[in-house]
Amino acid sequence: MSLDLHDNNLVGDVPLSLANCSSLTVLNLSYNKLSGTVPTSLCKATYLQILDLSVNNLHGNIPLCLVKNLPALNLGRNNISGRVPNFAANCSLQYLDLNNNNLIGEVPPSLKNCKMLKAMDVGGNMLEGPFPCMLPLSLRVLVLRDNRFHGELRCNKSWPNLQIIDIANNNFSGNVDSLRFSGWRQMMRDTVARMSNKNLAFAVPNFNSSTGYKEEVSLIIKGAERNLVKIWPDFTSIDLSCNSFQGGIPDSLVELNGLYLLNLSHNSLTGTIPKSLSNLMGLGVLDLSVNQLAGKIPKEIAGLTFL
Questions:
Q1: Are 93 and 115 contacting, i.e. CB atoms less than 8 angstroms apart?
Q2: Is 169 helix (H, G, I), strand (E, B) or coil?
Q3: Distance CA 251, CA 81 (A)
Q4: Which CATH topology does 130-198+233-307 take?
Q5: Residue range 17-35: average pLDDT?
Q6: Sign of dihedral through CA atoms 224, 225, 228, 234?
Q7: What is the pLDDT confidence band of residue 87, given thresholds at 50, 70 and 90?
Q8: What angle do CA 217, 56, 48 make, to 5 degrees?
Q9: Are 167 and 239 in contact (CB under 8 A)?
Q10: Any alpha helices (H) in the chain, and if so which ranges?
Q11: C or N terminus of the chain, fewer CB within 10 Å?
Q12: How many CA within 13 A on the CB side of residue 128?
């Protein structure tokens, strides 16, 4: 059973009695004016697969039981505080959206247990610590923007399914080439062509995600915030802007020939603009502003007809 009351003017607390709906699989109360805390009683709804309470006025902590049992959890754009709770050893999360709350602390190492995680958005909080290298290989969307993460991006693995990464407005440092771009196969044209009919969706039993709940992610595109719903594999994006990256723009980026958006602005990058960027024939957005780049703009850039 699915209960969808999103985008109304509902007020008051989330009813505790919802836990008595034993057959409830999807609960969407997003875009209302609900207040109070996220009730732990929802954990008694044993068949609940998707919980969306985003864009309300909820406060308090995230109930531990919710990150243990749900494939999809969206608490974004509330006033949720505290730390991200630890994830269970048999974590079934595929979609986690906690953006624009008041969360503190680090991303817990137990996130590695969520081996089916496809999308995580924790942007717009007060999270800190190093880049979460424990992220599972299944990841397709990662948003860490507007937090307090720091340090170099040195992980001993890559993410072959990653198609959107937004880590803007943090305190990351070091060289951009510490990222293993050659392993990001989802941003390569041959992979995008094979996946062109497979949007980001959840493998939720007995639930048709193509007609029901739509996952979304909020990104800054061309200076404006946009919500992307039903994310298709041909939208690929790298936003590393507003950090403290140094060194040159790596030639290894040329391997990502399916890339649409590249934003390296507001860093301390040096050197010249590599002419190899002209091989990114699908590039629609390129922002290298507010760096310390020198030399001429390569004439080959003019061949990027979608730019």
A1: no
A2: coil
A3: 41
A4: 3.80.10
A5: 88
A6: positive
A7: very high
A8: 70
A9: yes
A10: 66-69, 189-194
A11: N
A12: 5
